[in-house]
Design a protein that fits this description.
The chain is of the alpha+beta class. The protein has helices at about 1-5, 10-25, 30-40, 50-70, 85-95, 100-120, 130-180, 190-195, 215-230, 255-265, 280-300, 310-320, 325-335, 345-355, 360-370, 375-385, 395-410, 415-420, and strands at about 200-210, 235, 240-250, 270-275, 280, 310. Strand 2 (about 235) and strand 3 (about 240-250) form a beta hairpin. Helix 12 (about 310-320) crosses helix 17 (about 395-410) and helix 15 packs across helix 16 (about 375-385).
Length: about 425
């Protein structure tokens, strides 16, 4: 009978293993309590609350009973599966925020207890020392195989539960953000708790995006947050290649040119960032994000290469380009032959724009462009020839049209064929 039950063991060894398993099962309650205390001494987290202590005790009991019952009935260890209480214990550990390593330590220590306390006493039940050693070795191998299988199952359940928890958290955070952006009435304290983000201070929204799939936008978002004054920005993925972010600060952060240049140096070349203007409270949360979205639109329309773009520098172009057809017509009417795609036309437009920005100062414009003063003058004169008039007339309209053309490029420019 024993040989049939344990085909790979001698009859006397199989029979003795069965008998020892039956004896150990009779003492299961005592072993369960001892195993719990053994684990608690080494993992204080096991008893942080009564619910977790109860699940730890239940997991000890169910695993001991399952393993010993399988041995008692010569069931191959490959048939082992995690008891319900063990799976619930894994879910509870995930819900309480413990790492998977802490959870798996329960099984490593349970195995250690079985080896130190239970198998050490087998000699009392088996007078023949040689037979006792063989029985202990076989039980140890079985125990290892059981723990190996069960720990894999509970680890998988832990990961699955963690995914479920994180999904619920993400869903709650996404819903809270959507409601804020929609202007819905919200419980301010509850929303702040859900988002782990203060809504009473200055809010600065940003968006970062890329066309690559191997960029860690979360890390970049944290970098942006740190540069704007918060080590813990609110980050919300919008698909796989876009990240929305908000920074909450007691005062308005510095988003001037120098700060943006410094931030840009910390951003990978394959990533673009747009910033909204800092504003206060939940309304500022919504408005700053809307501005960051509009700044992104301008960046994409104009194919801007700058790593960071603030809405403050794009506000005028955004206002003038809400209707692109109207913006194109305006540029064509104001710039004429100067408002077309072309290398020379672009040089002349930039020269004229630099002079207008400098309020007519050729030297200042030359410094900005990095060319000689006479070059600026020559390009300006050619630009006026294309315009068919001097730059001193309709200065406001001319300046606006040049600014649109410089920022949006081909999106508002015509072609030489259209002028023919």
């Amino acid at each position: 009978m024993a040989t049939t039950q344990w085909p790979n063991l001698p009859d006397e060894v199989g029979a003795e293993i069965n008998r020892i398993a039956a004896v150990l099962l009779q003492r299961l309650p005592a072993y369960t309590e001892e195993m719990l205390e053994y684990i608690v001494e080494r993992i204080p987290e096991a008893t942080t609350d009564d619910g977790l202590r109860g699940l730890t005790l239940a997991s000890c009991s169910s695993n001991l009973e399952a393993a010993l019952s399988m041995v008692r009935n010569a069931i191959d260890v490959t048939a082992a599966s995690a008891p319900v209480t063990a799976l619930e214990h894994a879910r509870a550990m995930a819900a309480r925020g413990y790492s998977v390593d802490v959870m798996l330590r329960h099984y490593r220590l349970g195995h250690a207890y079985f080896t130190e306390r239970i198998l050490a006493g087998v000699g009392r039940f088996v007078p023949d020392s040689a037979l006792a050693m063989t029985v202990v070795a076989e039980l140890q191998n079985y125990a290892f195989g059981y723990v190996d299988r069960i720990s894999s199952e509970v680890a998988a359940e832990y990961v699955a539960e963690l995914d479920r928890i994180q999904h619920r958290v993400r869903a709650a955070r996404t819903d809270a953000v959507r409601r804020l952006l929609a202007g819905d009435r919200v419980d301010l304290g509850g929303t702040e708790g859900t988002l782990s983000h203060r809504l009473t201070g200055w809010q600065t929204a940003f968006i970062c995006w890329t066309e690559r799939d191997d960029i860690d936008l979360q890390r970049i978002g944290k970098t942006i947050g740190g540069r704007l004054g918060s080590e813990h920005p609110l980050l919300l993925p919008d698909g796989t290649q876009t990240l929305w972010g908000w920074v909450s600060t007691p005062g308005s952060p510095d988003v001037g040119p120098d700060s943006l240049a410094s931030l840009g140096s910390a951003i990978p070349k394959s990533v673009r960032v747009s910033l909204g203007n800092p504003a206060r409270g939940p309304v500022g949360f919504r408005e700053s994000h809307a501005q960051a979205q509009r700044a992104r639109r301008i960046v994409e329309l104009g194919s801007r290469s700058a790593p960071v773009t603030s809405y403050a520098e794009m506000a005028l172009v955004d206002t003038m380009s809400g209707d692109l057809d109207l913006a194109r017509a305006f540029v064509a009417a104001e710039l004429g032959e100067l408002g077309v795609v072309g290398v020379r036309e672009a040089e002349e437009r930039r020269a004229l724009l630099a002079v207008l920005d400098a309020q007519g100062g050729l030297a200042a414009a030359a410094t900005v462009l990095g060319v000689h003063r006479n070059t600026v003058l020559q390009r300006m004169r050619r630009a006026e020839e294309r315009l068919g008039r001097t730059a001193s007339g309709r200065i406001v309209e001319l300046h606006a049209a040049l600014h649109l053309a410089e920022t949006l490029g081909a999106a508002v420019l015509g072609s030489t064929e259209e002028l023919a």
